[in-house]
Automatic annotation (TrEMBL):
UniProt-recorded name of the protein: PI-PLC X domain-containing protein 3
GO molecular function: phosphoric diester hydrolase activity
SUPFAM superfamilies: PLC-like phosphodiesterases
InterPro entries: PI-PLC_domain (IPR051057), PLC-like_Pdiesterase_TIM-brl (IPR017946)
Gene Ontology biological-process annotations: lipid metabolic process
Highest classification ranks of the organism: Eukaryota, Viridiplantae, Streptophyta, Embryophyta, Tracheophyta
Length: 170
């Protein structure tokens, strides 16, 4: 890594519908991505702190993968997201000013036994035209609201629509 390059950690949250036994882990293995995989045995539990990005890069743990299927944590070694992450409601219900409620599948946002926080802020129907409004002061406001709701923790991940928009009105 040169002094000018930034370390990269890629995190995937998979809405997992793969039914083939070991099908998902097979794809990662065949793609050669297991060399970068953050092993589940090393993942912090019970609210413990995650390592610094620099330490993850040194150990070559550059890929975090979370699945929505609980059984895959034991069967394939893929982290079940609800064991590690709290998350607010997505869609229009997650965009109510001064409100930050947890998603139904998630533990309470202030549950500090889950050390990662994901904040959703996107409408139920994607709107490129509203992205600049949603992804500016409105987003800042919801981040502050969710910070308070999550026990004074800032999100590790923010999910938005159209994070990079080039609106051409000519």
């Amino acid at each position: 890594m040169s002094e000018h390059s930034l370390p990269v950690i890629v995190t995937l949250f998979l809405e997992d519908y793969v039914q083939t036994p070991n099908g998902l882990s097979k794809v990662f293995r065949e793609a050669g991505l297991m060399n970068y995989w953050y092993p589940i045995s090393q993942m912090p539990r019970n609210g413990q702190n995650w390592p610094l990005v620099q330490d993850m890069v040194v150990r070559n743990f550059r890929l975090l993968v979370f699945t929505s299927m609980e059984s895959k944590e034991k069967s394939e070694g893929i982290a079940y997201q609800w064991n590690y992450v709290v998350e607010n409601q997505y869609g229009n219900d997650g965009m109510i000013a001064r409100s930050c409620v947890n998603r139904e599948e998630s533990s309470a946002l202030n549950n500090k036994s889950k050390s990662l926080v994901l904040v959703n802020y996107f409408g139920s129907l994607p709107s490129k035209q509203l992205a600049c409004v949603h992804n500016s002061q409105d987003l800042i406001n919801i981040l502050q609201t969710c910070h308070n709701a999550a026990g004074e923790r800032w999100p590790n991940f923010v999910a938005v629509d159209f994070y990079k928009v080039n609106l051409n009105y000519t």
